[in-house]
Design a protein that fits this description.
heterodimer; A: mainly alpha; 41% helix; globular; B: alpha/beta; eight-stranded mixed sheet; six-stranded mixed beta barrel
Chain lengths: 213, 1018
């Protein structure tokens, strides 16, 4: 390789790098897998789901009837936390202690003074690009457990994005089919998973215009 | 490739090395975290709403006086789409382009965002408390001085209780009753109807007629009862061989005229003589012979004799009047006399079933009187609400100058229009989608108007402002005990609060709205209508724009971007001139023409048009605003500048009133038009057959150079080899996976074939479907001044660096209308003989064998198993090969990133973006886009059916265009399932595919138009 040719390669290198970077950014090919932002209130999913046994749909109330999963209104939080304040004994039976997250919540939403409530600026963890339609209700009503896509949220003190949410990941499930036993296992239901071991995988359409329009 | 090519430049190994290193860099840079977003929850969940699922509210459209019922689709608290209310007696589910565009009035970026007060000569923002205090003070001052009778309140013309309430308030404070001003209303017709039939607008049954004659009645041009009249017309035309023949008489062929089977081009102002001759023909005392009519109108005697004979034999018939000359009242009365003499009353004209809400309007003559009083110092206080007299009265009235003489002027306008900009206090009204109200749908039916969402700006309903004002005055507070205007409505509602709440679900209730007790002052009728006079060789015909009306629509980009149905010109004014006249004057299309009358002169580019007499030029109203927001200002000309203060006997401005001198102006500007060619050149795009052929069963198109095969079967999931290759493994014969194109595929997808039929016998070319498509599919408007391309590198704020001609993108053929109405002329090549116009709605044909699909290098367009030709925006890299391949030219390229906020060309400036349909991607720059058959609606219906555990029901949903169509010409559905209407219609003998000779196997079936030539079977 002559030196002249070598120098000619440097602009080419940058051109390709720039083009590829732009393309990958534009196509949304990069993934936020592992993204676990600090939330304004350190909401403990494990306490609500595992200790208290609350159903996901109690707070994410439209996941089974709307494309949007629904985010609990401040009023939903305050339904319990007007009574359950920061200074109550913790539900785990351990000695009483002050709960900082609940202090923050009650600062934003003073109990009994609904006119003074402020909204909670949650940081979004799971986001699909805007050219993708993801109807939650189709997946929930087909029996796909929340954890199949969102990971074991019931164990996450701070919610993180577990799956890549890339198209290949979506299509893989649509083509090969969703195994109910896998979903139940992810949700921590080992008994149900064993019972569902022989359920046929549920396939879905993988036509582009199912999600992209 | 030969080895030698490597030695000249970069070797393959080196290339791969560079590529590898580049990828490594990309991986490092590309993984940066995407923008962090916030999720903001509700404080308290609203009842009965589910996030991401639409709520629907019935309300009433207030864009014109017709009072159509609409259903507003509201998603997460914002109205995103308006559709006709299928239960409503006025519009039966249809909605015109203006009705659709109410949303752009609601979300108009130039709306007043809070009350404004004049300080130091400028309108500045203020608070409601201060504004109301100021108004209270001014009202008190006027009353203290005893000038109560010198107060004028100009309101928009609308039926309903508000007028009653307003008069009640005005009476309580000692002011005279208000005027309901309507600049576009045909007051002469209404007055004549009242005199002849006893009602302002009798019901019309065109389907019962066997001959319809229009004396300049432009009932398809968006005037007066536009949607109900169009429904009546389309229903009549759908009777095919039993449909009435339609004859249009007038100097200019309007959209209504283009829909006629025959155009009789008479001299402006001669309609009364023709009407007299026709009256004589049906046995009335007309007092004119056909020969007299022929000599007065410039029409041959034979033509008029044939019409007279037809009218005599055709029973029942229907004669409609709508001329805009000073003698309009005379013609309208004669038309009524003909109907009476021909026995049409009660058969085709039904005074017993009148349309509601057309009484009580005043015209521009009353505005002139007000201006006169103001000039004499006799107007102490002027209120204006929903009207814009400073713009839509002729210059001779000098309304703006007169306003300067009024000590204090209050506007309730939501928009910075010419009138409100002259006012001292602006108290912006809520939009009709944010406030309570009612309208008279028809006598005996109340149509309710309710807020469908929270207001977006700091505006207040005028009625509530007046209530607050009344309650602040101890002397009259007792007479206004209602907390809000809603309470007032409920107090008058038959059945009270419970019935009111119940009626809101459908938006309708039986009952009557008490009429205003103080009626508009009758206009002193002039002794004899003024003759059309003036220097010059040409008649000047001015007419309300079919979509912009008399100017109220000009601030809505959807309406500016909607091509005029006749000329196909948009974002611009034009002067219609006959091609032979143009040749005589040495004028080519686009050359500016000056029209000079005694009142003034106007100059605009010429549009050569066959549908106008050689001694006539015509200009549309609606443009030439000097205010009214960014989309309206400084665009085109105001045709009123060439009109004097000549009234038509009923108080309205005579729009055809004088002769004019016409000359070439010397400048030119290219016509902003979406028209490619006005001729079909044997392509058979818009096909028609005559009644005789229809009856005889001859369905082949005459003169279509390339006959094709219309019997394209709608196979379930019609497969295209290319499409299959794109997605499945059909190309690989050893593969077991046949993809979703396998009819036995487990997904069941292959059983559907989404398709559409368009009945050209019904379509009138009104273009309501186009606006519905813009609204549904987030289509950007691209014609505004700031949306042109860059001419050289420069900042976004430096205008000189950009192409700032209005419609610059459209001049380059870059409009984005996924659905367009093509208008073709047949015959009349010599410029003198009668011609025929045909309209074809043209959108992606969703070909089963699509030419666009094989040429896409990235499979961004492909064929879906349910028959859709899909465009995947995120795959598209913008090669535009598909558009080159498309024979229908229905693919549109997003040149400037109109959906991207940071760009100069951004099409949805805040808060217009709140209207965007959340179910449809807002496309970015460099992406090809096109009609998707409203795939989002297909998916929504499928999702709903799945949730409810059932199959899709036949005709369960439809596309936005089909939903809006005021002619019910478009039908959408699954053609592979016999139970859908579309499957039956697609087999109609009139059916054809456009360019079927190309074997594209389209999913759109057009049904041929049926013509009724003179002397034809009927």
């Amino acid at each position: 390789m002559t030196s002249r040719r070598k120098w000619a390669l440097i602009p080419a290198f940058f051109a390709i790098a720039t083009a590829a970077t732009l393309l990958s950014a534009y196509s949304g090919a990069s993934s936020s897998q592992g993204f676990a932002p600090v939330q304004p209130i350190a909401f403990p999913h494990p306490v609500h789901v595992q200790t208290l046994g609350m159903n996901c749909l109690y707070c994410h109330y439209s996941a089974n009837k709307s494309p949007d999963p629904g985010l609990p209104a401040v009023g939903t939080c305050m339904g319990c936390h007007t009574v359950v304040g920061p200074n109550r004994p913790a539900m785990d039976g351990k000695p009483a202690r002050v709960s900082e997250p609940l202090k923050t919540l009650q600062t934003l939403a003073p109990p009994g003074q609904a006119d003074k409530w402020k909204t909670i600026p949650w940081v979004r963890v799971h986001k699909l690009p805007e050219y993708v339609r993801f109807p939650h209700m189709r997946h929930v009503s087909a029996g796909v457990t929340c954890q199949s896509c969102h990971g074991p949220v019931q164990e996450m003190a701070q919610v993180a994005q577990t799956a890549s949410l890339n198209m290949g990941w979506c299509v893989n499930c649509h083509v090969k089919g969703y195994k109910l036993s896998d979903g139940l296992l992810a949700a921590g239901d080992t008994v149900g998973a064993r019972a569902a071991a022989n359920v046929e995988p549920k396939k879905a359409r993988y036509d582009c215009a199912i999600c992209h329009y | 490739m030969s080895q030698s090519s490597g030695s000249a430049g970069v070797k393959r190994r080196e290339f791969l090395k560079v590529l590898g290193a580049a990828s490594a860099v990309t991986t490092t840079i590309g993984c940066s975290q995407e923008k962090v977003e916030q999720l903001i929850p509700y404080l308290v969940s609203p009842d009965q709403t589910v996030p991401g699922v639409s709520t629907y509210y019935s309300t009433t459209c207030r864009e014109c006086a017709a009072g159509c019922g609409v259903v507003a689709e509201v998603r997460d608290g914002r109205a995103i789409k308006l559709e006709g209310n299928p239960e409503h007696p006025v519009n039966r589910g249809a909605l015109c382009a203006r009705g659709q565009s109410a949303l752009q009035g609601l979300y108009n970026p130039d709306r007043y965002r809070q009350p404004m007060v004049r300080e130091g000569g400028k309108l500045v923002a203020t608070t409601w408390d201060k504004a109301i205090a100021l108004l209270t003070q001014k009202v008190a001052e006027v009353r203290a001085k005893g000038q109560g009778q010198q107060v004028v309140f100009i309101d928009e013309h609308a039926s309903g209780t508000f007028g009653v309430f307003l008069d009640q308030w005005l009476g309580a404070v000692g002011f005279p009753a208000h005027d309901q001003y309507d600049s576009s209303a045909d007051l002469a017709l209404r007055a004549a109807n009242v005199a002849s039939y006893g009602v302002a607008m009798p019901g019309i049954d065109m389907a019962a007629a066997s001959l319809v004659v229009s004396l300049g009645a432009d009932f398809l041009d968006g005037r007066d009862a536009s949607v109900p009249m169009q429904l009546a017309f389309a229903d009549a035309r759908a009777k095919l061989q039993h449909a009435p023949r339609f004859v249009y008489i007038g100097p200019r062929r309007s959209l209504t005229g283009l829909n006629a089977d025959e155009w009789i081009a008479c001299t402006p102002g001669s309609e009364d003589v023709i009407a007299r001759a026709l009256l004589g023909a049906v046995g009335g005392a007309g007092g004119a012979t056909v020969a007299e009519a022929a000599s007065a109108s410039g029409v041959t005697e034979a033509t008029l004799q044939r019409l007279a004979d037809d009218l005599r034999t055709a029973r029942p018939s229907l004669v409609l009047s709508g001329v805009s000359t000073p003698n309009a009242g005379v013609v309208a009365t004669l038309a009524a006399d003909i109907n009476k003499a021909a026995g049409n009353v009660g058969v085709t004209v039904k005074p017993g079933e009148p349309m509601g809400g057309y009484g009580g309007a005043v015209g521009a003559q009353r505005m002139a009187d007000i201006a006169g009083a103001a000039n004499a110092g006799n107007v102490a206080l002027l209120f204006v609400r929903g009207a814009n007299p400073a713009y839509d009265t002729p210059k001779a009235v000098k309304f703006a100058e007169a306003m300067a003489k009024v000590p204090f002027k209050i506007s309730f306008s939501s928009y910075p229009d010419e009138t409100s900009e002259l006012c001292d206090l602006v108290l912006p009204d809520d939009h009709s989608l944010e406030s309570w109200g009612d309208a008279e749908a028809k006598p005996g039916v109340i149509s309710l108007q309710q807020p469908v969402m929270e207001r977006i700006f700091d505006t207040r309903a005028t009625a509530d402002v007046l209530l607050q004002l009344a309650q602040g005055d101890p002397a009259i507070a007792g007479r206004f005990p209602w907390k809000t205007y809603r309470d007032f409505l409920v107090s008058r509602f038959p059945g009270g609060a419970a019935a009111f709440t119940q009626a809101l679900a459908t938006g309708m209730a039986n009952g009557s709205i008490a009429p205003r007790t103080a009626v508009a002052k009758p206009v002193a009728a002039t002794a004899a209508p003024a003759a059309i006079a003036g220097d010059g060789d040409y008649f000047l015909v001015v007419y309300p724009h079919a979509v912009l009306g008399t100017g109220a629509g000009a601030n809505k980009p959807w309406l500016q971007e909607l091509p005029d149905p006749v000329s196909k010109v948009l974002w611009q004014s034009w002067i219609e001139i006959h091609p032979l006249t143009a040749r005589k004057l040495g004028v080519a299309s686009g050359d500016h023409v000056t029209v000079q009358t005694a009142a003034g002169s106007i100059s605009a580019p010429a549009f050569t048009y066959l549908g106008i007499r050689q001694d006539t030029v015509a200009v549309a109203l609606g443009q030439g605003h000097t205010a009214y927001g960014r989309y309206a200002k400084d665009l085109g000309i105001n045709a009123l500048d060439a009109l004097g203060a000549t009234w038509n006997g009923a108080g309205a401005l005579a729009l055809t009133q004088s002769k004019a001198k016409v000359s070439k102006a010397g400048t030119r500007s290219d016509l902003v038009t979406t028209e490619g060619s006005a001729r079909q050149h044997g392509r058979g795009i818009a096909q028609a057959i005559t009644v005789a052929d229809l009856v005889a069963g001859r369905f082949k198109e005459e003169g279509h150079a390339f006959p094709g095969d219309a019997n394209h079967e709608f196979l379930p999931g019609l497969r295209s080899p290319v499409a299959a290759d794109a997605q499945g493994d059909l190309a690989d014969p050893t593969s077991k996976d046949q993809g979703q194109y396998d009819p036995k595929h487990w997904s069941g997808m292959a059983k559907r074939r989404w398709a559409m039929t368009i009945d050209l016998a019904r379509c009138t070319g009104c273009s309501a479907c186009v606006t519905a498509c813009y609204a549904e599919n987030n289509i950007p408007t691209v014609g505004a001044r700031w949306q042109g391309r860059a001419l050289r590198p420069g900042s976004a704020s430096d205008d000189s660096a950009w192409d700032t001609r209005p419609g610059a993108n459209i001049l380059k053929g870059r409009e984005m209308s996924w659905l367009r109405i093509e208008r073709y002329f047949e015959g009349g090549e010599d410029g003198t003989s009668d011609f025929e116009a045909r309209f074809v709605p043209m959108m992606c044909q969703h070909c089963g064998n699509a030419p666009c699909e094989p040429v896409c290098p990235v499979y961004a367009t492909y064929h879906a198993p349910d028959g859709l030709n899909v465009q995947v925006y995120n795959r598209c890299v913008g090669t535009r090969y598909c558009s080159n391949g498309c024979p229908y030219k229905v693919r549109y390229y997003n040149w400037h990133g109109y959906g991207e906020k940071e760009r100069r060309q951004y099409a949805f400036p805040e808060p217009l973006h709140l209207q965007l349909n959340p179910d449809v991607t807002v496309r970015g720059k460099g992406v090809m886009e096109k009609c998707s058959f409203c795939v989002q609606r297909i998916r929504e219906a499928e999702n709903l059916a799945k949730l409810e555990g059932r199959e899709l029901k036949p005709d369960e949903f439809t596309t936005a265009c089909a939903q809006a169509c005021p002619s019910k010409a478009i039908v959408f559905g699954d053609a592979a399932d016999e139970n859908w209407s579309v499957a039956k219609l697609a087999k109609d003998a009139r059916g054809y595919h456009v360019f079927e000779e190309l074997s594209t196997y389209t999913a759109v079936v057009y049904l041929k138009r049926v013509n009724h030539p003179a002397g034809g079977a009927n």
